[in-house]
Request: fold
Amino acid sequence: MLILVTGGSGSGKSAFAEDRVLSLGEAKRIYIATMHPFDQESFKRIERHRKMRAGKGFDTIECYTGLKDVQITGDSVVLLECMSNLTANEMFEENGAHQNTVEEILAGVQKLKERARHVVIVTNEIFSDGVTFDEEMNTYLRYLGEINQAVAKMADEAVEVVYGIPIYLKKTDNNK
Reply:
């Protein structure tokens, strides 16, 4: 099963995604961390997320680019946090996919879906603020939008978390 979780900053999407992973039963739990620490704020966010998942049985894999190369076992439940960071990394890091970001990430998502028992992907809702951006940021938003749409189509569930409340945008009858 593939589950997409979206929401704004501070919406509770990360906590919801972790709880959703736990609800999928006993399994090898893998947390794919995509935030490349580059400043004090990113180190603080990473530490906060480590504390949130402490004691929940996650093994962490740091993956800044090249999602399709991540090795996991078929009995695992994967939490990828988060698509927004992965997209930026693929676009801007030296060894990233650059103009092939969308294709590269979707190939990685497809491999995770094929290899893992369940995959939960967290992304950000950053498209409704009405701000005008420069060309580079507009490209980032376009790529992330394309990725989010494609993953939502692949997903069995799509959930937006607002104020800690999950709003199911897509849910199949056979979801447990």
